[in-house]
Amino acid sequence: MTAIDQTVSVGVDAEETRRARRERAERIGRWLLPLAIMTLAVLAWDRVCVWNEIPHYILPRPGVVLQALVTDAPLLLSSLLVTLRITFLGLALAVAGGVGLAVLFAQSKWVEMSFFPFAVVLQVTPIVAIFPLINIYVDNQTAKLLLCAWIVAFFPILSNTTLGLNSADRNLRDLFALNGATRWQELRLLRLPAAMPYFLGGLKIAGGLALIGAVVAEFVAGAAGQSSGLASRIIEAGYRLNAPRLFAALILISVTGIVIFLVLSLVSHLILRRWHESALKQER
Amino acid sequence: MLALQTSTDESAPAAPLLSLRGVGKAFSNGVTALSGVDMTIRQGDFVSLLGPSGCGKSTALRIVAGLASATTGTLDWHGEPIGQRDLGFVFQEPTLMPWASVFDNVWLPLRLRGVSRAQAAPQIAEMLERVHLTGFEHAVPRELSGGMKMRVSIARSLVTRPKLLLMDEPFAALDEITRFRLNDDILELWRDRGLTIVFVTHSVFESVFLSNRIVVMAARPGRVHGEFSVDAPYPRDERFRTSADYAALCRDASEALLAAINASHQSSRGRA
Predict the structure, then answer these.
(1) B129-to-A200, B178, B185, B194, B213 alpha-carbon distances in Å
(2) β-pairing, B32-42 with B16-26?
(3) What's the gap in Å between the CA of A234 and the closest CA on chain B?
(4) pLDDT score, position A1
């Protein structure tokens, strides 16, 4: 009886209490710390401007930037929409092209060996250097920008999906062969699901790259006065020494990039949460 | 206790199903995995291929399944040959699709034959009941224990009602209690379904408990070292596992395996 009573009355020991407290602190700190540092940095920025009497066309105070964000909102948001359209269309094309090519590569080692180097060449050549050519060959403004965003974004999807399609379990492939699976069945039921975590990893990278591709393309095109996206707002504001608007546009671009990353991370988590190691909560 | 000719309490010797004649396998890297393997598998046999690692027992199984080709020798089917689609294969790991539910995993072989989900449902339900997994249809593999995953794998291999089941060290990674239970279950399935099973293992105890015949193999190169009938009646249960008969049979098989291992060492020294 006493033994049983003892086991029932055993509370949580000191180590467990400490661990629970540490976990709680980490949970709060994860949000609180970045926010605190960010606030401090903005405060420091403001003080530096005031103490050194920096003119607002060189470095505006944060309050002024915020004000520009509000007063220029109609202009900036319409430009943001233009940039977002290119980004998402570019990403969609990158997914279609990347997955399509990867599936093609998976059909035959020979195809992969023959064409993969071309994809690498396209990836490693800086887009800024390619753009003048695109400018000559492509007339349509949207098509130019899309092509840029696509070239920058498709490679991580292609590379990751190719790796994923080739990493299906060997024994499972034997099992499919034993059961007389067709090539299409093996692709649909085994290789594509097995490639999903790899594809989603590539997608997360490609999302950010598509935005970069769109902005860079706008920059190069905008220099010729042909674009109305956020990048052209930045160039324009630079010419006019309108630093507050320049900063406001910059902040919008970063926030957009962060939102794209978070959304794609959420999508990835929702798709993988039931089965993939990466999406599992750590258990002790 | 190990008799050379007679099999179990079965009266008439069963008809032969498959004979391996002089089967050898050499890989392109120069390794000879198998050399001159002769063995006959009879209908209703529970044959264990017992041997140390590297003795080519898994390769032999893959050749029977048609997953690998024999470099030399032939595979003679007595009567209708059993094609790849008419045999079941259980791998060393459960080899389940981690993204698919238990139901979908067991459905797979039928699905690949064009059987719809609805058509397959009764067979799958029956099979899951046989391996004691009713109620887990919607679980995904990571939610199951090692033993349960292996049960799913067995259910998947038998859902197409094959006559011949090939098992490649299926229980090697499981704990002893789970292994005992799965041994009981596989014997039950073997009897009820009139299966012929070829079972690769490196466990003396497992091979003696399960099989009516043991083929002991030696390594470098992989070859048949000896063949024995396990002269103990079925059904074999918990009582058999603790009986003196079982202990004696295990000792005999152990000695045969030791001799095979020594032969393996000698042949590798002889070559070096």
Answers:
(1) 37, 18, 12, 18, 29
(2) antiparallel
(3) 46
(4) 45
ipTM of the complex: 0.88
Judgement on whether residues B144 and B169 belong to the same structural domain of the protein: no
* Residues of chain B with C-beta less than 8 angstroms from the C-beta of A178: 65-67, 84-85, 87, 89
What radius of gyration, in Å, describes the C-alpha atoms of chain A? Answer: 26
Angle at A237 between CA A233 and CA A242, to 5 degrees: 140
* Radius of gyration of the CA atoms of chain B, in A: 19
Domain coverage including residue B64: 2-82+163-271
Q: How far from each other are the two terminal CA atoms of chain B, in whole angstroms?
A: 37
Model confidence band, residue A273 (pLDDT cutoffs 50, 70, 90): confident
State the total domains in chain B. Answer: 2
**CB-closest option in A172, A179, A274 to B97:** A172
Among chain B residues, CA nearest to A183: B112
pLDDT digits (tens, 9 = 90+) for B45-56: 999 999 888 888
Let me know whether B247 and B221 are in one domain: yes
Instruction: Tell whether B19 and B39 lie within a shared domain.
Output: yes
**Are residues B215 and B115 part of one domain?**
no
Cβ contact B97–A180 (<8 Å): no
Which of A272-276, B21-25, B37-41 shows the lowest per-residue confidence on average (mean pLDDT)? A272-276
Each residue's pLDDT tens digit, A15-63: 888 998 999 998 998 889 999 999 999 999 999 999 999 988 889 999 9
Asked whether residue B122 falls in the same domain as residue B180, the answer is no
Report the gap between the CA of B120 and the closest CA in chain A (Å).
16
Across the interface, of A177, A179, A275, the residue whose CB is closest to B99 is A275
Position B272 pLDDT exceeds 50? no
